[in-house]
Specification:
This protein is about 35% helix and about 0% strand. It is mainly alpha-helical and about 110 residues long.
């Protein structure tokens, strides 16, 4: 429920947010139920068409957000956008540092500081 997503849509449309956004509003399966369904916290029930997940996803997509066709396509969309940003040189990949060894003995590690 709520309309906070539309604040982001307006910010993108007005150019206040220029970075690529990958988004998905959860709850699109609510339309599959015969009665109203509440997802998440107590105030998460849609109170009109504009507050449905489907309407929000549509508005975000129309504003230029990267919105997959379904939730299960979200990882693929994130990968696609990330890969594109790397290829364009916007994101520069750097190797991760070496992961430090976790000591087996907490008392010994505490003495080391």
């Amino acid at each position: 429920g709520g309309t906070d997503e539309y604040d982001l849509v307006e910010a993108v449309k007005k150019g206040r947010i220029t970075k690529p956004i990958v988004a998905w509003c959860v709850g699109t399966c609510a339309s599959c139920f015969a009665t109203e369904v509440q997802f998440g916290h107590a105030g998460a029930q849609a109170r009109g068409d504009m507050e449905t997940a489907a309407a929000k996803n549509k508005a975000m997509k129309e504003a230029g957000f990267h919105v997959p066709d379904s939730f299960d396509k979200l990882p693929e969309m994130i990968s696609k956008v990330y890969t594109q940003l790397v290829e364009e040189g916007v994101v520069k990949e750097t190797p991760e540092g070496e992961t430090p060894q976790v000591p087996m003995d907490y008392t010994w590690a505490k003495k080391l500081g």
